[in-house]
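Quick start: read one record
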Amino acid sequence: VSGTTRGVICGWDLREQKEVFTMQNPARLGLLRSFIVDRDRNWLLTVTSRGYFTCWDLRFNIPIKSWKHPQKDMVYRMLHYNSVKRGSWIYSAAGTKMPTKSAPLVLNLP
């Protein structure tokens, strides 16, 4: 999976060396900053320069939901954590400067 500065998200089959899907992130949400793919490859979470998260369904190549980070600022880091007991969690940090003592946003995904 790769993303472009124009908001295009592309999936590549490295064995066949061809593109298998493309999705367009809305330009009004900002530039793609980062993305995370779950280990079963069912969903993709993108984050933009304006602090918008978008969860994509990779089975149907459609956006499921978009929302803005509570700090209403740019997200500069995301971390995906899988737990057998607790499920899938996303940790993110936002702001204009790297925080030293601020709490990250934590998302619990199915």
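The chain has a mean pLDDT of 81.
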